[in-house]
Fold:
Amino acid sequence: MIKLEISKEARDYILSKNDAITVESVSMASCCGYSNEPLVFEYKPPTPGNYEEIIVDGVKVYVFKDGVVIAPGGARICLADNNSPYKTLITEGLRYRDCFDNVHPGFPI
Structure:
């Protein structure tokens, strides 16, 4: 079971839109290399069997199972503080293994 919390601001935002969110593993590449990054989307996944379902404070959270690594203190979903009129959900304490089976530095295997 994944230990996960949602900040009050993020919870209020999510519940104003939907009752479920999905944390996907999205492949990203840049000049610094390749990684699978967790991104939060405001929908229920089309194939829930590939996800771990967690209910946190009335919000259904679907976390993509394959390669997930959680920080020892657990993971957190919160609103990004980006001074933008558009709100964005982000994760803290959650990473995915990349194609080389490495994890982000500081996360135990």
Summary: The chain has one domain: 4-96. The CA atoms of residues 48 and 62 lie 7 Å apart. The beta strands are 4-6, 20-30, 33-41, 51-56, 59-64, 68-70, 75-79, 89-92, 94-96.
